[in-house]
Amino acid sequence: MKKLFIACLFIVSLLVACSTSNQQTSNPVPALPDSLAGTFLDHRIDMEERLDMVINQLSLEEKCAQLMHDAPGIERLGIKPYNWWNEALHGVARMGRATIFPQPIGMASTFDPMLIEDVATAISDEGRAKFNIAQKNGNYLQYAGLTYWSPNVNIFRDPRWGRGMETWGEDPFLSGTLGGAFVKGIQGYDPTYLKAAACAKHYAVHNGPEGLRHSFNAYSSPKDLYETYLPAFKMLVTQYDVEAVMCAYNRTLDVPCCGSTLLLTEILRNNWGFTGHVMSDCGALANFHGLHQYTNDATASSAEAIKHNVSLNCGSTYQNLVETVQAGLISEADIDRNLRLLWRTRFKLGLFDPYGDNPYNHLGPEVVNSKQNVELARKAAQKSVVLLKNNGVLPLNKDIKHLFAIGPLAADVDVMLGNYNGMSNNVISVIEGIAGAVSLGTRFEYRHGFLLTEENKNPIGWAIGEARGAEACIAVVGINTLLEGEEGEAIGSAHKSDRPDLQLPGKQLEYLKQIRKDQDKPLIVVVMGGSPIALEEVHKIADAVIMAWYPGEQGGNAIADIIFGDAIPTGKLPVTFPKSVNQLPPYEDYTMYGRTYKYMKDDPMYPFGFGLNYAEISYSNMSSQKTTYQFGEAITLTADISNGSDFDTEETVQLYVSALDADFPVPMYDLKGFKRETINAGGSTQVRFTIDTSELTNIDEKGEEQYVNGRYRFYIGSTLPSQRAIDLGAPEAGMLELKIEE
């Protein structure tokens, strides 16, 4: 009887399993209703033919309305409303719950394209899932769509720019490589459908001042334009197939960017072969007549933009498009051309196809802020942290007897978020991360201690004395998005979100000095913020300095992981930290001489690419197959890397090149490659870079690529090769001089 019961139970279980399996896998694509066959909703028809079919059914008024960012539905054709304005800078933004990853300037510190691609894949998974849910709920509002206006690949040319935190740093190659990895993850890998659409912004030469962005005329020499301001955009268009490009508010070389024949026609379309859609930044077309005085009115502004194939207007200027056509300034064929460019994206997203035909429609709430994505956010934050100084106090022992945390940002969760962020119930502050990591037998205390931007109002303050009495003190200082950001966002900034003074605000430095005074107990300073801060005095008084950026929802855990050695610091600075603004050229000067690691001759506080590691890394035996090459040949460079410590680690290896015999100005150093290598404790490995000599062209004063015959120096190391980096504790880079000729 027992055997019979077990046999019956087995059969029932098998039937249930089969039934469940069928429910999970048998999801046939619904047959296309006969009423849709042969229409633009028939996904079996070629996309270009479908575009012809739908455009031919629209009135002029309907066509023009579809070129606005808040496009209305067309009920008679079964077309739903669609709002093109959506954000995903470091997570699905402004649309409720989503995983919050580190701000892009922090993710740039990872120098890790594979990680960035994984992050962007998680973002687009969550975005598609949230879109699917919103569609079922009939939510067609702003931020509920799939066209993400990210990444921002403007060059962080000047650390005073409040919006630099949205970028991938000051180097075009790094920005293009990491921005391109982000595009790949956002857009997905299906041969037919986009998971979401990415957008390269803000094209071009849009790098502050933030308060003048609507009226400023950015003058760039041809050399700077093609050497610095355009390469990242070019990479995203030509190598990574970014779906959209956003033209900027400002003028470049006297012409509004959204009406520039040079930028939009000659370079973007003709030279780079871009076939996607171009959109205006929000309100940029109104600037044509309102602030640039380039046109007389909105009708003329609309005509200029349409002629330059700006297919989408974020703003209200295109409300005049019908009148613009009727006035003869543009034709209906011009409208059709732009609508085709724009709607091709909607077709690629599968917005007019049967539900079951789209491979991304299965994504649901289970992927949003999932355990896997939260873990990825923590990993990204760990890798973004940059260790700027360590005299041996880190990592701290978790069994420390008495630990004290202090500072205006230690318990702040807002500083984890950055800008253009989503919302999460997993946001971990620094003190929460430390409390979760330190031993239960440790006396761990926290006091706010001092204010962010001003001197304490109360002359009596106990916290400084308490901090001095602890076995070690962790002080969390810096800035937040009340002090830097986009134009009107940083409500605590008197400079429209820019930072003309790079110093720590308020009296933070003075309070740090009080903690340090007449005692030598470890003082670890954690610096929060999205841009370089003048840290020369902090470096002198602290035992360890950590740059943590705006590290996302798991930032507190990641910082604690670094402090206590559960993770090894491997982040590298994607932007130069000057000692003060005195080392910088005038902010409104767009000339690159004196800027960034390529042309800055003064020793900075911290060089580009700098970041310490708990492991003792050394480089040796840099070599190549031969000493003379012809342009067009490939050069393979190798170097040995050793780890003389007890820590297993990753090392962020960087390749720099210097052309020594150029007869026109060239960068002192030029980043040409980077990779992360795993090196076990006490072990070594060989790193290999292969670079085609055709990639070693330099841009002359006319903006033209030139081969420079003669000597080239190649460096392989952990940071920009400089004596300053060595003085700060970086290992000396390997160096090799080769000759290259045409």
Automatic annotation (TrEMBL):
**Keywords of this entry:** Hydrolase, Signal
Domain of life per record: Bacteria
- Occurrences of domain Fibronectin type III-like (ranges): 651-720
A GO MF label: hydrolase activity
Q: Does the keyword Signal apply?
A: yes
Q: Which residues form the signal peptide?
A: 1-23
What is this protein identified as?
Glycoside hydrolase family 3 C-terminal domain-containing protein
Q: Which organism is it from?
A: Carboxylicivirga mesophila
